[in-house]
Write a structure and sequence with these properties.
3-stranded parallel beta sheet, 59% helix, 4-stranded parallel beta sheet, Oxidized Rhodanese, domain 1, 11 strands, alpha/beta
Length: 362
């Protein structure tokens, strides 16, 4: 039987081709592609059993065990799940870890039912390898423009609006500060890297000569870290800086860290939202205690607790009492220090509108 193989990784990724990932759930959770759905041949325990059999008795015995574990109604259910996805997505492809026995068996079973589906040569490993190599090559041969500015200048919002912007914080699902943790969870490191590579690949394909713009970030965005070669690329690139008055930045931060976060927390947690919001604020402040110092942290916590107690009486206004000193005493000095080190790389700075105009026309 001639089984169709595809290895045009670039086209598969750029076209957002629907993909069936037949690896076990534990493998999928460790790293996957945005357009893939996990419809496993074997669940985690079955894969574990087959792996032990392979180690102890060899491939033939492992294959026999796999066939016995995925048989009868279980086999029918697996095939039906794949068939349903392919019928709904006629351009779909299928892959396993390395394009070997599992994916080959899956498409053979599908073919027996009259359904044809290409499988990816080299499997997930080759798709992931393509993205990894692409990002490394891009970083070695290109520059980016880094959008910088004090906390509260709305850098992420600008990046999201720009046709050539790549949203690193969006890829990490984290706003990049102690108060920027998501309500849900961050992606695993591999998926974070896959997302960045795919976003740049897509943008470069649409606009090959475009200068990509990213937000000024530290190496870590929450629990995710930028690949060293990407962090190095940012470090040697040109910077554009937003200048904004303190009071305007404070209002932006108050809206984002307090008002919007409260509304999102209540929607996410329901009846336990009030406590979750309070815990989020206190924990976020305690995360920067080392830099603030114990006494100052204690003072800001007291202001924060007072604001939490009054927030429904003063429409959250008292939260400015701790947010203002936190911004001026912690975030601003940190950003000023970092920007001073990069002053020779700054090619433009201005107010928010001037920066947006410059980035859109350069």
């Amino acid at each position: 039987m001639s089984l169709p193989l595809v290895n045009n990784y670039r086209e598969l990724l750029l076209s957002n081709t629907p993909m069936i990932d037949v690896r076990a759930p534990i493998e999928f959770a460790a790293g996957a592609l945005p357009s893939a759905v996990n419809l496993p041949l074997m669940v985690d325990d079955q894969r574990h059993q087959v792996g032990i059999r392979y180690k102890n008795n060899g491939q033939k015995s492992a294959i026999e065990l796999g066939h016995s574990l995925v048989a009868g109604k279980i086999k029918e259910q697996r095939i039906q799940a794949w068939r349903s996805f392919i019928i709904a997505n006629p351009s779909a492809v299928l892959y396993c870890a390395r394009g070997g026995l599992r994916s080959q068996l899956c498409i053979e079973w599908l073919a027996d039912t009259g359904v044809s589906c290409p499988r990816v040569e080299g499997g997930y490993k080759s798709l992931r390898g393509f993205l990894h190599q692409y990002l490394m090559t891009y970083c070695a041969n290109h520059s980016v423009t880094v959008l910088s500015g004090m906390t509260g200048t709305g850098k992420t919002e600008i990046i999201q609006q720009l046709a050539t912007g790549v949203d690193l914080e969006g890829a990490a699902n984290h706003k990049g500060s102690s108060f920027g943790r998501p309500l849900d969870s961050q992606p695993v490191q591999v998926n974070f890297e896959n997302r960045i590579a795919l976003d740049i690949l897509t943008l470069q394909n649409k606009r090959p000569k475009a200068q990509i713009i990213v937000e000024d970030e530290s190496r870590n965005i929450g629990a995710r870290h930028l690949p060293h070669y990407f962090a190095d690329l940012m470090g040697r690139s040109s910077f554009v800086v937003i200048d904004m008055d303190f009071e305007e930045r404070l209002e932006r931060l108050w809206q984002e860290y307090v008002v919007d976060r409260y509304l999102k927390t209540m929607a996410f947690f329901g009846d336990s939202g009030e406590q979750a919001f309070s815990d989020y604020l206190r924990d976020s402040l305690l995360r920067v205690q080392k830099r603030l110092g114990g006494l100052r942290t204690k003072e800001l916590l007291a202001l924060m607790d007072s604001a939490i107690a009054r927030q429904h009486k003063d429409n959250f206004a008292s939260h400015r009492h701790w947010l203002a000193p936190l911004t001026s005493e912690y975030y601003d000095p940190m950003y000023s220090y970092q920007l001073d080190k990069k002053k020779e790389q700054i090619i433009f700075r201005g107010n928010r509108n001037a920066v947006i105009d410059w980035l859109q026309t350069t």
